[in-house]
Amino acid sequence: MWSDRWAGHPHREVRDRRRHRRRYRHGPLLPIATSIKQGGNRLISIVGARTKDLLILEDDMRAISDEIVVTTDDGSYAKKGFVTTALQELIDRGEKIDLCIAIGPVPMMRAVAEVTRPTRSRRW
Question: What are the tens digits of pLDDT across the range 46-70?
Answer without folding.
Answer: 999 999 998 888 999 999 999 999 9
